[in-house]
Design goal:
- By secondary structure, the protein is an alpha/beta fold.
- It has a domain of 66 residues.
- The chain has 1 helix and 8 strands, in the order H-E-E-E-E-E-E-E-E.
- It is elongated and about 65 Å long.
- 20% of the residues are buried.
């Protein structure tokens, strides 16, 4: 009897969660942005966890940076970075 009750409750929850409204984007003041968790950004494509960045693609978790491509894990004050991971603070003109 207990197993039937649990199964019924799971079905009700599944139905509820499928019909619920889900926010597709988290961010503010984002212009021309595709990604999530982006704040004060411009021209960002497929990037996540961005803050005050411009002209970046395929990046995550970087702040106050410009012209970065495929940068991951951490970075702040970055300029002209291509294919970097955990770049640190105020790095510029770095490849791979």
């Amino acid at each position: 009897m207990d197993d039937q009750n649990t199964t019924k409750k799971k079905a009700i929850f599944k139905d509820f969660s499928e019909k619920s409204i889900k926010k597709n984007f988290h961010g503010l003041q984002s212009e021309n942005c595709i990604g999530d968790d982006c704040y004060n950004v411009k021209n960002i494509f497929t990037s996540f966890g961005m803050d005050e960045c411009e002209d970046c693609r395929y990046c995550d978790l970087i702040n106050t940076s410009k012209n970065c491509y495929d940068v991951s894990s951490f970075g702040e004050g970055l300029n002209w970075i291509y294919e970097g991971c955990t770049m640190g603070i105020t790095s510029s003109n770095c490849l791979f």
